[in-house]
Write a structure and sequence with these properties.
The complex is a heterodimer. Chain A is mainly beta. Chain A is built from no helices and 9 strands. In chain A, the strands form 2 sheets. In chain A, strands 1-9-8-3-4 form a 5-stranded mixed sheet, with no helix packed on it. The chains are: A mainly beta, B mainly beta.
Chain lengths: ~110, ~110
C-alpha cells in the first residue's frame, strides 16, 4: 500500500512556482522519496528523488524536512505543460522492488 | 531502443478472448514491472521481474493473469478469458537493477467489449 499522503488536486498560475506537498510520516531510514508525474494518456515520468538532503535538477527541486516525515516538490516556473498528476513515492533504493503509486496530486496550471 | 516499448498501443477484444501484451524494456535493464491503470484511477502493481530471481506476482488480480520474461529481456503479459473489468491501460517499466529508477512505456490501452 502507498505510504504517502498527497492533496488530491492543486491549481497554480502559469509562471509561478508550484509547491506540491507530500506526507510520509512512516518513512524508514533507508527509504528514498521519489517523485513521478503522469501527463494525460502517457506513462509516468521520473522527476527527482532524494534521501535526506534537498535535491535540484533541471526539472524541479525537492525539499525534505529534517525529520523526513514530509517533503515538497517545487516546480519553479510552472508552464501549461506541467499540468499532470504528480506522485510521491517512498521506496528502498538498491534493493527495493515495486513502486507504490498512490492517488497523487492533480496539478492544473492556469494561464 | 532508447525507451521502453509496448505493443500494441491499443487493443480491442471481445469478452472471453485471450490477449497478449508485449513489453520491450530498455536494453540492459534487469528489472521489469507491469502495472495497470483503470480510467481515472492510480497505478496498480501487477508483477515484478528482477534478473533470474522468482518474479513477485503478488499484484496479479486473478489466475487469468500471467506474465513471462524470456531471456531476461522481452516480457509478455497474458490475460485469459478477458472480462470487461480488465479494460485499462497496462503499463510496463524497466530499471537498471533492483531498486533503480523505473522508466515507463506509453502503455497498452485494452478495451474489452
Amino acid at each position: 500500500d502507498a505510504k504517502t499522503t498527497q492533496p488530491p488536486s492543486m491549481d497554480c498560475a502559469e509562471g509561478r512556482a508550484a509547491n506540491l506537498p507530500c506526507n510520509h510520516s512512516t518513512i524508514s531510514g533507508n527509504e528514498y522519496v521519489y517523485w513521478y508525474r503522469q501527463i494525460h494518456s502517457q506513462g509516468p515520468q521520473y522527476i527527482i528523488h532524494g534521501l535526506k538532503n534537498n535535491e535540484t535538477n533541471e526539472m524541479a527541486s525537492l525539499i525534505i524536512t529534517e525529520d523526513r516525515k514530509s517533503s515538497t516538490l517545487i516546480l519553479p516556473h510552472a508552464t501549461l505543460r506541467d499540468t499532470a498528476v504528480y506522485y510521491c513515492i517512498v521506496r528502498v533504493a538498491h534493493t527495493g522492488n515495486q513502486f507504490y503509486f498512490g492517488t497523487g496530486t492533480s496539478l492544473t496550471v492556469i494561464p | 531502443g532508447a525507451g521502453v516499448s509496448q505493443s500494441p498501443s491499443n487493443k480491442v477484444t471481445e469478452k472471453g478472448k485471450d490477449v497478449e501484451l508485449r513489453c520491450d524494456p530498455i536494453s540492459g535493464h534487469t528489472a521489469l514491472y507491469w502495472y495497470r491503470q483503470s480510467l481515472g484511477q492510480g497505478l496498480e502493481f501487477l508483477i515484478y521481474f528482477q534478473g533470474n530471481s522468482a518474479p513477485d506476482k503478488s499484484g496479479l488480480p486473478s489466475d487469468r493473469f500471467s506474465a513471462e520474461r524470456t531471456g531476461g529481456s522481452v516480457s509478455t503479459l497474458t490475460i485469459q478469458r478477458t472480462q470487461q473489468e480488465d479494460s485499462a491501460v497496462y503499463l510496463c517499466a524497466s530499471s537498471l537493477g533492483a531498486g533503480g529508477l523505473a522508466f515507463f512505456g506509453q502503455g497498452t490501452r485494452l478495451t474489452v467489449v
